[in-house]
Here is the input.
Amino acid sequence: MTKLIYFGCLSAKNYESTCDNAKKLIQFIDNEFQVIDDPPCCGSLSFHITSDETLSEHIKFVNDWFNENNVTELVTICAGCYAYFKNYKEFLGSEFNVKVQHLLQFL
Here is the structure.
């Protein structure tokens, strides 16, 4: 069981201090949460510009990554990632078994 802190690719690149502070808050509340280097992009930006087939392949890729890393729960600071992860069930149904929370819900 892995509890993942998921910053999101745009947040990790552009808001490093925000990510660092969010990590401190999350781990203060529950020190089982961890950051895994180089997680895949959630795909929220591609949702607007790619075909359904490509999008479905990417979602399956991300879900496989979650399974390989035994991710059962994640907290993200990115509202876009949160909204998009909540749509994964639409594509994957019961194959998507990750509890998703935004930082504000977690707090």
Observations:
- Residues 2-106 form a domain with the Rossmann fold fold (CATH 3.40.50).
- The chain has one domain: 2-106.
